[in-house]
Amino acid sequence: MKTRIVPMASCAAFTLLAITVAHAEDGYDAQGDWPSPMAEHYAWAAGFDRLEYLFPGKGVEEALLWDFEAWYGGDHNRVYLKSEGENVQGDGAGAEFEALDLRYSRLISDFWELQGGVGYQGNVGSNDHPERFYGVIGLQGTAPYLIETSLDLKVSEDGDAWVQLEAEHDVRLTQHLYLQPRAELVASGSDVEEFHLGSGLNSLNGGLRLRYEITRKIAPYVGAYWEKSYGDTADMARTHGEPTENTGLVAGIRILF
Amino acid sequence: MTAKNITDLSLSRRQLLKGGAALGLGAATLRLAPAWADPWGQSNAYPQGMVEGNDIALAIRRETLAINGRNTRPITINGTSPGPLIRMREGQNATLRITNLLDEPTSIHWHGLILPPQVDGAPGISFAGIAPGETFTYRFPVVQNGTYWYHSHSGLQEQLGHAGPIVIDAAEREPFRYDREHVVMLTDWTYEEPAAIFRNLKTAEGYYNFQERTVTDFLADMRENGFRETARSRAMWAQMRMSSRDIADVTGSTYTYLVNGQAPEQNWTALFKPGERLRLRFINGSAMTYFDVRIPGLRMTVVAADGQPVQPVPVDEFRIAIAETYDVIVTPEADMAYTVFAESMDRSGFARATLAPRLGMEAGVPERRRIADRGMEAMGAHGGMDHSDMAGMDPSSLAGMDHSSMAGMDHSSMTGMDHSSMAGMDHSSMAGMDHSSMAGMDHTNMAGMDHSDMQDDTSPGASEGDLLPAGDAQPGSQYDQAGIGIDPDERRILVYRDLKAFRPWPDRREPEREMEIHLTGNMERYMWSFDGKKFSEVNGPIHFRKDERLRLILVNDTMMEHPIHLHGMWMELENGAGELIPRKHTINVKPGERVSALITADAEGSWAFHCHLLYHMDAGMFRVVKVS
């Protein structure tokens, strides 16, 4: 119970920050019933950064993978809905959510936003999958050399902590054709048997995608990836008869709404 | 082009023909004398219609209209977009009745006109705006002459074509002569909704830029400059997380650039008789586009800037910032056509018109230049001192050095320099210096351009004490530089340094105090502001004391140009011309530049002060100035 309080409290603090956004007073000759000369704008964005079909190597089933993100808000404060997961083909089970997060985000410098919120890992549709709730604190932004970065620290209701780091970069081949290397790292602070995760470095994932922007909002791509699990995580995979290393191809589309 | 468009085109041509035939007659009715008998010989072939007199009525509506042959829904004024030419006479009392037939509030701001605040037309500051169905009457004395324009000051309506030209005839003889005149109003039209454009900029900065650097550019640069130099320059930009090709936020990928409402293919044509002196009144009425204007084969003589007469400057090309106006005189001698070519600053498109003795004639359309990289605009353009051996030098101990006579210095190859500790240096007269291509410079603290912490005070910094003499150029100004993407060696380009008032302005007082305002932004989130705060984040207006003589210093901390406009009062641009400094309603400030203007704060009331890039203004680069 105690462990649950920490992430919840941090979320509450962020929510308070979001509410206390000051509004300026006019202070000039305008009459009370006049409109403001400039309206404050709120925007939203939503889209699948990745919506792809995986053609993996031996021992792994084909799968449909998604990486979705939506936000609404102003320049400094935003609310995010993020979701990542996959639906393994032919396993008869529903889609697995690796993450389904609701976050509050605040711009803390030109290129970085600090995020905090709650998330869920598991399967929304059935009960035969392990699941857990967690609190998350994240740093998202553009690192020097134009590397899109997100770093998340997650703490589950059982007190398990783990970090996820994602980084990607667009190499512009033409005005519409992009080559995108991306890397993903997961490390855990403890053994979490039900998710087959051991403490220490869990896995590394590297990918290379070639994307063609038909428009800014619709961009199909093809690519390849390589992933490997390490340490106790690798041991657990071996115990369950799963491969510890895998290379595959992907075909997908990036869609922005 | 569809059959319908051809009809449209021929219709407008017929109107033009009519206009052409009446070139004398039109002037005759205006002046009650035959044109040939009028030494001024004025006439106008503005194709969108003209309204004039003491009582002018305009109706604003949103309706379907063909622009470049494609049906779309602009905001029209008396049925056209851009709206009709409003022609007035200096000394008259203007009565302009505006009827709003939109389903949202609207307004018209008379850009550049000196008038009482309640008829300035900025909603929420000087009046309530014009509600749907309402007719609002603007009444004011016309106290000036020249070329101006009008536009909506409500939301993003300006992008929907809610704008038009104003010509005010002088009460007394102007200091230049001409036989015939034409209005050339440049605009940028998009078939997208303005709100969608704004959202695209907010959610994906660079959305409209299809001229970014690619691997191919890198290889080409490598062949030219070597791997080390190319990699270093690229790394600098990547390290700052910015694009050297960020010249325009909204580009030809969505814009069709228009002259008097006509697309390049429609080729709006203005007529002349060979040997005549033509006055062309250029107005940049666009929402987001800087244009570079030239007429191949003709030298233009600039005679007025922002409606105010200047000493004649012969040029081959001029850059016109959003909201500026320039009047030029050309004298086409030959019986041939000339192309008026107005390239967007980022080279993603162009507007085009033709000057010809007869309709149907055309001249060649020049090739567009290639997009330039930020930081490369004047590379190698400056002779004089060569510092090419200064690579690796550490000027950290140069504090206190006086560079006052280093005009024309070329720093283009000062690689690896660290300026971080150069405090106290005096750069005051380093005119002509180009630091733009100092590869390897350590600008780490400039990344992101958000200088929000620079001024915690809500009111801009003001100082009183030892000030530069009136008319002197500020250290950091670049009045003699043409700007990004222009090669001054290629042809004679108008620069701000060239602008000299025809005669000194009435108020000759020295400034009593200075006020410094920083132009700030965060490209990544498309945030734009003054002194790091957008309009919704500031408390209260900027204060000018009634009748004070004030120096307004504008410091551009961003890597974009900003055309800054003050309502209600003139800004006398201190471009170093001493008592002949020009006065302007809109001042373009280049990236990194520091400029100043003298202001006589004689207009009591509240006034808008903002960047005239429409989406910058809407994002918050806007303040209220209160004179009291």
Write up this protein.
The complex is a heterodimer of chains A (257) and B (628). Chain A is mainly beta and 257 residues long. Chain A has helices at 2-19, 231-239; strands at residues 43-55, 63-73, 77-88, 96-109, 112-122, 132-143, 147-156, 161-168, 171-172, 177-188, 200-212, 218-229, 245-256. In chain A, strands 1-2-3-4-5-6-7-8-10-11-12-13 form a twelve-stranded antiparallel barrel. Chain A is globular. The model of chain A is unreliable at 14-26 (pLDDT under 50). With 628 residues, chain B is mostly beta strands. Helices cover 11% and strands 30% of the residues of chain B. Chain B contains six helices and 34 strands. Chain B has helices at 3-21, 23-31, 194-203, 215-225, 227-240, 614-619; strands at 50-52, 56-62, 65-67, 70-72, 75-77, 85-89, 93-100, 109-111, 135-141, 146-151, 163-169, 180-190, 255-259, 268-271, 278-284, 291-294, 300-305, 308-315, 317-320, 325-330, 338-344, 350-356, 461-463, 513-522, 527-530, 542-544, 549-556, 562-566, 571-573, 583-584, 586-589, 594-600, 605-611, 622-627. In chain B, strands 23, 24, 25, 27, 29, 30 and 32 form a seven-stranded mixed sheet that branches. The termini of chain B are far apart. Mean pLDDT of chain B is 83; it is low at 1-41 and 376-458. At the A-B interface, strand 1 and strand 9 of A face helix 3, helix 5, strand 33, helix 6 and strand 34 of B.
| Percent of residues in β-strands of chain B | 25-35%
Strand content of chain A: over 45%
Number of strands of chain A: 13
Q: What can be said about the biggest beta sheet of chain A?
A: 12 strands, antiparallel, barrel
Biggest interface goes to: A-B, 40 and 54 residues
Strand order of the largest sheet of chain A: 1-2-3-4-5-6-7-8-10-11-12-13
Spatial extent as radius of gyration of chain A:
21 Å
Distance between the terminal alpha carbons of chain A, to the nearest Å?
Answer: 40 Å
Topology of this protein?
The complex is a heterodimer of chains A (257) and B (628).
Chain A: H1 2-19, E1 43-55, E2 63-73, E3 77-88, E4 96-109, E5 112-122, E6 132-143, E7 147-156, E8 161-168, E9 171-172, E10 177-188, E11 200-212, E12 218-229, H2 231-239, E13 245-256
Antiparallel strand pairs in A: 1-2, 1-13, 2-3, 3-4, 4-5, 5-6, 6-7, 7-8, 8-10, 9-10, 10-11, 11-12, 12-13
Chain B: H1 3-21, H2 23-31, E1 50-52, E2 56-62, E3 65-67, E4 70-72, E5 75-77, E6 85-89, E7 93-100, E8 109-111, E9 135-141, E10 146-151, E11 163-169, E12 180-190, H3 194-203, H4 215-225, H5 227-240, E13 255-259, E14 268-271, E15 278-284, E16 291-294, E17 300-305, E18 308-315, E19 317-320, E20 325-330, E21 338-344, E22 350-356, E23 461-463, E24 513-522, E25 527-530, E26 542-544, E27 549-556, E28 562-566, E29 571-573, E30 583-584, E31 586-589, E32 594-600, E33 605-611, H6 614-619, E34 622-627
Parallel strand pairs in B: 1-6, 2-7, 6-11, 12-15, 14-22, 24-27, 26-34
Antiparallel strand pairs in B: 2-5, 3-4, 7-9, 8-10, 10-11, 12-13, 15-20, 16-19, 16-21, 17-18, 17-20, 21-22, 23-24, 24-25, 27-32, 28-31, 28-33, 29-30, 29-32, 33-34
Helix pairs in contact in B: 1-2, 4-5
